[in-house]
Write a structure and sequence with these properties.
The chain has helices spanning 6-13, 18-30, 37-45, 50-61, 71-86, 94-106, 115-124, and strands at residues 2-4, 33-36, 64-66, 109-111. It has one domain (2-124): 3-Layer(aba) Sandwich (Rossmann fold). By secondary structure, it is an alpha/beta fold.
């Protein structure tokens, strides 16, 4: 199972960094890809046209949906944030801490294009998909 972060979806939809675009395409073909509520929000807030929204809605509608937050994940994400901060590392976006912690706790690989997740991989054992 693979959760694709908004940072990778944005590259995919905009035909950006080829490495990321190819990883998303491969995951969609070969893996069970899921979408989370917070990632859906991040992608949808950046949509500029009705046709983009229809494209995204069609693709995301075919994926299994998961709520990423909740009280247990919030507490564990805060613990993870403090663990990183004790090492002198500050994650820039709280949503990324929640997404990363969800993946860690549920043993789900994360496909991303965001350096905040690199430190979670290194220090918190986040599993990624390349």
């Amino acid at each position: 199972m693979v959760l694709i972060d908004s940072s990778a979806w944005i590259e995919y939809f905009r035909n950006g960094k080829m490495r990321v675009v190819e990883s998303v395409a491969t995951a969609l073909q070969k893996e069970t890809v899921i979408i989370g509520d917070l990632i859906l929000f991040e992608v949808l807030q950046g949509i500029r046209s009705k046709s983009e929204k229809e494209l995204v809605s069609e693709l995301f509608g075919a994926l299994e949906r998961f709520p990423l937050g909740g009280f247990q994940i919030a507490e564990k994400a805060a613990d993870n944030f403090r663990t990183l901060r004790s090492k002198g590392i500050t994650v820039r976006k709280s949503i990324d801490m929640i997404i990363g912690t969800f993946c860690i706790e549920h043993h789900i690989r994360l496909l991303h294009n965001d350096r905040d997740f690199d430190v979670m991989e290194r220090y918190l054992n986040l599993r990624t998909y390349n």
